[in-house]
Batch of 4 targets.
Target 1
Amino acid sequence: KAGVTQTPRYLIKTRGQQVTLSCSPISGHRSVSWYQQTPGQGLQFLFEYFSETQRNKGNFPGRFSGRQFSNSRSEMNVSTLELGDSALYLCASSSLPAGEGYEQYFGPGTRLTVT
Amino acid sequence: GENVEQHPSTLSVQEGDSAVIKCTYSDSASNYFPWYKQELGKRPQLIIDIRSNVGEKKDQRIAVTLNKTAKHFSLHITETQPEDSAVYFCAAPMNYGGSQGNLIFGKGTKLSVKP
């Protein structure tokens, strides 16, 4: 099976712009979670989608949004970028919701730099 | 909501020694506790997990112990090798009205194994 893929891998944007990141889960997986990873802060949960519905959302401002399509591919969007949004954005997929004890498989991440 | 504390943030050991990383969680309803390993520049990968109905689980040189009463769980690595050098993350699920939600991750422990 192909692993989780994310595009693009690297992105440089300017403050105030918006960005869309994409995540393709492992075939058959219906849950996609998004995390922001920054040095010293670990993996901070953004949101989880399951069967096209947002299941949970982390403590991030409304500038961060996402969606999931019928083929389970997911996108996240960040509007009005700020310098503090520079981070590695990871998505992870699992066959069923991750908190229920199903292994999450992570993608390679998208490195976003905001200048 | 769930809060996961992880200690220490950095750990340096000599090759062959043991390493122990500890995590505490706040939600007594949590019942699934995974550990992820992230090597430099790579994606996090699940190395071991434990469910609340067991107190210990082993897989070769790694083991995880769980104390539900005290609400803490630990990762034990014996006979450490240089390839064990990585950042390790523990996690626990957020509880939403009786169902297990997204995973909340600790901030990570950077383990360095010196040859």
Target 2
Amino acid sequence: NAGVMQNPRHLVRRRGQEARLRCSPMKGHSHVYWYRQLPEEGLKFMVYLQKENIIDESGMPKERFSAEFPKEGPSILRIQQVVRGDSAAYFCASSSGSGQSNSPLHFGNGTRLTVT
Amino acid sequence: AQSVTQPDIHITVSEGASLELRCNYSYGATPYLFWYVQSPGQGLQLLLKYFSGDTLVQGIKGFEAEFKRSQSSFNLRKPSVHWSDAAEYFCAGRMEYGNKLVFGAGTILRVKS
């Protein structure tokens, strides 16, 4: 009974490169959330997606960041032209959703991005 | 604006002592409330959740939380702390019909023997 799977666990990129973070939700879950955790800070909401749709991207930076959740395959968080300030832990969560706010989110172990 | 506040950044307790971690929320109505725990280098694990009904909620690992509407609080408690409870604890809230789970800044728990 696999939980939320994120890969890679650790990712090192040089400034200006692209970072692609992958998230496979729990089986049966069709709602995916991405959060960013900066050192000594809490988790900040970035984006909420359902299959093939972005529902809420109010937490996404306006430039360089994008997310998708295709019909087949994992959800991808893409960061173009990374800068040092993008270094953080990025967590994916999924829920069974159905628009119900009481569906708890199940989190992956995160991807720790380091920009050198 | 919807927000969740955890006033204590760090808390240190002795093993075997009782624990209370504070959480306050600011929402237009009663949100759904959650407590998560994060061990170093790991993801978040759900400890317990409150939706409605009984204001004292039991969770995993011997934790409980009490919802107090008059104080806009949802404090996490444990009667006797174990060294393995050392971790970071996050309170989170979500509006009914809302999508976004809003987290507090977290409280780091240290347990001394």
Target 3
Amino acid sequence: DAKTTQPPSMDCAEGRAANLPCNHSTISGNEYVYWYRQIHSQGPQYIIHGLKNNETNEMASLIITEDRKSSTLILPHATLRDTAVYYCIVRGTGGGNKLTFGTGTQLKVEL
Amino acid sequence: GAVVSQHPSWVICKSGTSVKIECRSLDFQATTMFWYRQFPKQSLMLMATSNEGSKATYEQGVEKDKFLINHASLTLSTLTVTSAHPEDSSFYICSAGLAGGDTQYFGPGTRLTVL
């Protein structure tokens, strides 16, 4: 699976949009971009995933560049409960394909 | 939907004893489950991939005789840490994927402390 690069930490004011970038320049054509987050001492939580089109769900939006070499996770109105480590993971298709976690981005949402 | 549970949520044991951790998919069937380990201030590291009805596939460096994995049904996988030592103290997390699907859903984790 392709590797990803994320900034180690970011801060965001509560109520503002949090934009978390991810670089995955070696992504191949059949690999998806997945985002998970991990709140302290809990298991990771699935947020969203996409292949090449932008995606939106009740939690977030995922913007993937046309060349698919980078993406941005957008939390439209961050709250204190969104403080967590956010992981961007590139993964092939198939339920048996494993997830390889990098170091992620520690997002801190402040008042 | 897609809820994964783990039991126990935390356990303290003496060195040399064995500990079993259960991972259950509550509202879906999971042909594949994964076991991860996370040390403090580190990321998740995959230990093994567990397929229902077959032997688990272990990642390089993970001792299969020490970390016994059983995936006897489509909703239950167990991880047994045999002859646990203090260096096995960690946060153990499982994940499960929907049969035929791609997304993995994670359990809440089990904190193991070996004295």
Target 4
Amino acid sequence: NAGVMQNPRHLVRRRGQEARLRCSPMKGHSHVYWYRQLPEEGLKFMVYLQKENIIDESGMPKERFSAEFPKEGPSILRIQQVVRGDSAAYFCASSPEQGSFEQYFGPGTRLTVT
Amino acid sequence: LAKTTQPISMDSYEGQEVNITCSHNNIATNDYITWYQQFPSQGPRFIIQGYKTKVTNEVASLFIPADRKSSTLSLPRVSLSDTAVYYCLVAPLGNTGKLIFGQGTTLQVKP
């Protein structure tokens, strides 16, 4: 059973460009979480999605960031007009049920904004 | 959500037992205690979860006293590969499941 997959693993974008981060949850998991880890800091919750629904986006910046988890395909975290402060590791996690504290994390996407 | 406090760093030697204590003085009745491990450049990995008394799995043990205001993660006979950051999290059952990570404890295992 493949684990959580994220791609790309490394992404370099210039200021002002768009970044798209993809997450494929574990098979059978319909709950996806996105977290961000800034350099030398802990992980911060961003958003929680179920298929076709955003359940909790309390950690998402108000502008430029959006997330989706369509009926078919991976979950996408989209960052428009990236700035240097967006440089971070973005982790996706999945779980088989709502409210589970046992989440399975992917390897992360390391975004570098130049 | 209950605030957690844990040591910023700890050192140990191979073969020793390591105990990492987390304080959560304002833990609520329906809060559960969960521990995660994170290696450099990797996503966190679930270690163990408990509500009270003692929980043990193939990786670690979790000790929770009766008042539940603290918890201790016990790693038996650590090896160099246990060098990682360990996070203590407290959250209520029925929460959306979002995990609130603190700064964690950086464990350095020396040969």
